[in-house]
Amino acid sequence: MQALLALSRAIDRLNAFVGKYCIWLIFAATVISAANAVVRKIFNYSSNAFLEVQWYLYAWSFLIAAGYTLLQREHVRIDVLNSRLSKRTQVWIDIFGFVFMLTPVCILVLWLGVPMLISKYQSGEISGNPGGLIRWPVWVALPVGFSLLMLQGWSELIKRIAFLRGQGPDPMGRLSSQTDEQALAEALRMQAAEKDRQAASAAGTAR
User: Fold this and answer.
1) For 44, phi and psi rounded to 5 degrees?
2) Which residues contact 144 (CB under 8 A, 6 or more apart)?
3) Half-sphere exposure of 121 (CA within 13 A, CB side)
4) 20 to 30 Å CA-CA from 10: which of 1, 90, 130, 152?
């Protein structure tokens, strides 16, 4: 289990690194958009390339940050019923989702997307718009983004299995700056305290 947890931490670091720096893609798209507007107003000139490179940058930022978003637990969740269930039931629901929904979808996208990327690279396909850009660079974001998302799904799966085995902190808890060792120690302390309370309650009932 410790080897899997080490893998999980490595995946978390990878997606944290990507998430930290992909904001520069948004910044670049914003600068290009502003420059395009200024040039169009002052010099009455524009190009579809300016517009398409913005689309490319936005596509890259949203796709490659999907794994980081999952790491931060910022994807949309429907918690009307889930929040009323026990912690272990919530964890089992997440495990089911990662194994039978997230992973198969990611594999399917990669299975269909990689051949499409190769085809567009080999053909050198260019946008049909006048002055448009070559297409394959934006298609690279598809396998990269879904690979990062699938890896993060596996990392979250490992965390939840570790929690169920009593070898990891609560994966649904509040994100903090604690190290993994500190979080694990805190989780084990809380589990021990809960067991003590249950034992005391059982002893009182027996009397």
Assistant:
1) 55, 45
2) 63, 64
3) 10
4) 90
Radius of gyration of the chain (CA): 23
Residues with Cβ within 8 Å of residue 38, at least 6 apart in sequence: none
Which residues make Cβ contacts (< 8 Å) with residue 162, sequence separation at least 6? Answer: 1, 4, 5, 8, 168
Tens digit of pLDDT at every position of the chain (207 positions): 788 899 999 999 999 999 999 999 999 999 999 988 898 888 888 788 888 999 999 999 999 999 999 999 888 777 777 778 888 888 999 999 999 999 999 999 999 999 999 999 999 999 888 888 999 999 999 999 999 999 999 999 999 999 988 887 888 776 644 445 555 555 556 556 656 666 666 666 655
C-beta neighbour count of 184 within 10 angstroms: 18
Question: Do 18 and 147 touch, CB atoms closer than 8 A?
Answer: no
Is the pTM for the entire model greater than 0.90? no
Tokens representing 31 are 């600068």
Domain ranges of the chain: 2-175, 178-207
